[in-house]
Amino acid sequence: MGLSKSSYYYQAHKPIEEQEFEELLKKRIEAIAAEFPGYGQRRIYRQLRREQYKVNHKRVERLVREQNLQCKQPRAYRVTTNSNHRFPRYPNLIKDIIPTRINQIWVADITYIHLVRGFVYLAAILDLFSRKVIGYALSLSLDASFATEALQMAIERRCPAPGCIHHSDHGVQYAATEYVDVLKEHGLISSMAKQGSPYENAKAESFFKTFKYEEVHLNEYQTVDDVIERTPYFIEQVYNAKRLHSSLGYVPPNEFELLNVNDQVVEKLLSATTI
Question: At what angle do helices 16-35 and 41-50 cross, to 10 degrees?
Answer without folding.
Answer: 110
